[in-house]
Design a protein that fits this description.
The protein is mainly alpha-helical and 329 residues long. It has 20 helices and no strands. Helix 4 packs parallel to helix 6 and helix 6 crosses helix 8. The longest helix is centred in the first third of the chain and has 15 residues. The N and C termini lie far apart (96 Å). 36% of the residues are buried.
Length: 329
Amino acid sequence: AYNITVLDHLPATRPAAAALVVRNVAAWDKADSDFGAAYLHAGKQRVEFVRMLAPLLPRIILSIVSGAPKEVVAAVLDAALDYAGTEVGEPHHGWIVVDYYEQFPSIGVAAKDKSVIDLRKHRTIDAIAKLGIQLPATSPLDDTARRRVIELGAYELNASNIEDLTGQPSLALDDIRAKSEPVFAAALGRLAAYFELIAAREGAVTVRDPKQFASILNHANDAAVGDEHLVQIVEKSSPTCHVGDLNDVPESVWPTLLSSKRATPSAQNLLSYIDNVGPLDGDAAIFLDGTEAIEEADQLSDDDRRRLAVAILGAGSVISSTAHRVQLA
């Protein structure tokens, strides 16, 4: 049988003996689990006990410590995650981690003892990420934990976290990218949540700087962002965002660029649209509505000018005014 009082003294006086006792407890039959529960309630070395037990029982350590008394639960949860690391199991216990992580000594600013120099590389954030937990707030974390959270994406994508992790308040993708490529990548990877943030903040845009518009669209396309989300990036960007040459951005957003009049009404853009998307359509009609002349038509070859003229004159189903079609052609 194990003795609580004896184990209280062993870690400091006979660490090898303490480790042997904990290895025996890790067999985790009924007597072992009863002793573990009793020690978590009455022992004096509860954190050290969990530090020794967690590597031996990483898959169930959260269940073991979740019943610890309130005054020590944050410390033992931290120890469990820290010493189990990426071997930790039981994602269904994530709620208790979220409830207490701000008080974890290894990662929380408020919980740290500033007088102690801690050189150990903690694995608490790695365990949190392994459990699939996204922390609701990153500001309570120390700098080391914050960097690891960014690397692993173990945080909720919300306005407060974006500001905390990038050091600036803008939600625009170009502003986020300028401060943190990893946070930018996280935003692209969680665009449904990102667009909710944009919708919730009055005046927020997906791209603020017109000079970064094409770059953001291409980066998102290279990151395998779907066409529907690419279109939303265009639609929710600053009204000043504009494309001079359609060929500078993914083809999937061309119709939206035309229908929102975010492209130059040049002859080359219209020919590119015809050659890649198809005959002039409703989006092109909106694009040309109010346009008196096609720009840079004189830069086309004679054959391309004829092709464009024929396409415009033949677009009567979408540009109903014959006079306007003749004017443009």
